[in-house]
C-alpha cells in the first residue's frame, strides 16, 4: 500500500540544464534567461558571467521535446530524465563565436573557472528524444549558432535580455 508521501511524489522528473538555442517569440519576449546570457556575451557584456559557473547545456528545442516526450511516453515512470547534452564554459562559447563569426572581434577569454566534470547518465533522455523524432541531442555549437542567428536577425526589434 502506498503512503501519502509516495502518492504525492512526482512520477516523472525532468532536470534540464542551461537552455541555449532559439526562443519561442523574440518579438514579445526578447532574449531572456540563458539565451540572454549568449546575447550579452556576444555583445561583450560580462556582468554576470563570472557568477555562472561551468555547467551542462541543452538545446531549447531538445528541452521542449523532452518535456512533451516525458509527459506522453507511458514508459517514463518513476524516472529522472537529465536534460544535459554537453558541458560548456564561457571560453568554449567564445571559441564557438569566433569560429562562426571570424570577421568579428570578441573579448579575450575569461579567467578560467574550471569545467563541470560531472558524469551524467542521459541515455534515457536520448531514447525519449529518438522516440519523438529527434535522432540525438543537438550539439552546443548548433544551439549557439541557432540562437545567435535569431539574435542577429532580430537586431532591429526590441529584444533586450533580462535577468
From TrEMBL:
Gene3D superfamilies: NAD(P)-binding Rossmann-like Domain. It comes from the Eukaryota. This is NmrA-like domain-containing protein.
